[in-house]
Specification:
single chain; about 400 residues; alpha+beta; Butyryl-Coa Dehydrogenase, subunit A, domain 1; Butyryl-CoA Dehydrogenase, subunit A, domain 2; Butyryl-CoA Dehydrogenase, subunit A, domain 3; 4-stranded antiparallel beta sheet; 3-stranded mixed beta sheet; 12 helices; about 50% helix; binds flavin-adenine dinucleotide
Amino acid sequence: MSEFSLHLSEDQIQIQKWVHDFAENVIRPAAHEWDEAEEFPWPIVQEAAQIGLYGIDFLMNAFGDQSGLTLPVAIEELFWGDAGIGMAIMGSALAAAGITGNGTPEQVMEWVPQCYGTADKVQLGAFCVSEPDAGSDVSSLRTRAVYDEATDEWVLNGTKAWITNGGIADVHVVVAAVDPELKGRGQASFVVPPGTKGLSQGQKYKKHGIRASHTAEVVLDDVRVPGRCLLGGKEKLDAKLARAREVGRSGEKQPAMSTFEATRPAVGAQALGIARAAYEYALDYAKERRAFGKPIIMNQAIAFKLANMITEIDASRLLIWRAAWLARNGGYTNAEGSMSKYKASEVAVWVTEEAIQILGGYGYTREYPVERWHRDAKIHTIFEGTSEIQQLVISRAISGLRIE
Ligand SMILES: Cc1cc2nc3c(=O)[nH]c(=O)nc-3n(C[C@H](O)[C@H](O)[C@H](O)COP(=O)(O)OP(=O)(O)OC[C@H]3O[C@@H](n4cnc5c(N)ncnc54)[C@H](O)[C@@H]3O)c2cc1C
């Protein structure tokens, strides 16, 4: 157990600076181009892999940090650079987290490195939970996994929606219903290895923001994966299903839910990076821009906006650091992970809108980055649990009641 401290270690300060330099020198200058192109930024991800920012070593390093702060600190800098490219670099981590959270040590060793590949041959991972008719309500997944005893294979059928890296990933982690009657307790996670027949990309979505990140449907048509691709193994799944059938309500967490809970402070840190970028830009602009004979910051109406922006940004960072520390040191008691993601994402939407207001007409044009930051911020109130779902999780945690 490590003490909670607001002082970052020497190592963490170095990582923060290293990621910031990459964000400033490589990501920021490329952000506008990739946003306009709406394409996956392969050259930038490759460059990130060359320096070790995209890859298994970086992830292991961050996960090995007992304070829990290394990951949110690095992510804040990455997303300060650009959220679309940031997602392209971070997207595989969700698949890696799904494997780590549900797999055996052998499965983690086999599949997590394949979500990243090597510096010379970059690979991607995708975590496939959401479906056209099941986003927030992950207990209602229709994708089915049926065991074929004769061949020791699982057969997957269904359609996944809004999947980051969907269809272009090498490793797809798919959450599917084994026993639909048991809802969330009847689900399991499967690795679909690279090149497996029957998995294809459906429509690629045209999005409001994070447009450099690839988001698409994933279609599973009689996809056969070997028995060893069931994360956690068959024995564990059979025992879990038997328990769920016996008890009716075992209260056991769904696999998808536990992945999301563990990654929430990291998602909060993404939103935080965008908010800080917009705040810094707006502060500089307000000191430069003159109206009525003086810099616009000399008006309280503008200066107070900036004062409120930084106060909310710092409050978000404190919630994120607390949640990240708790996740490694004792665990959440009041859904602190959800609180951090909820607060930071709402703050990012608000701060980026205020930044547009401070830039006036210029802020509304694509010549300035603040309108992109506003578009990018919005996804954070939607994915990995909408703001309403975070409020639900928090209110259930504080009340002990099943608030609907
Ligand atoms: C860019 C992008 C990337 C994504 N990446 C991934 C990914 O990699 N993997 C993946 O599995 N999914 C991914 N998603 C899906 C995302 O997680 C879902 O869109 C999200 O969970 C919301 O689900 P939904 O869209 O079905 O909305 P719905 O669940 O239909 O919600 C619609 C509205 O109703 C509200 N609502 C729903 N239920 C309740 C309730 N009980 N109480 C109060 N309000 C409620 C919601 O808050 C929301 O405002 C991604 C989505 C996007 C847009």
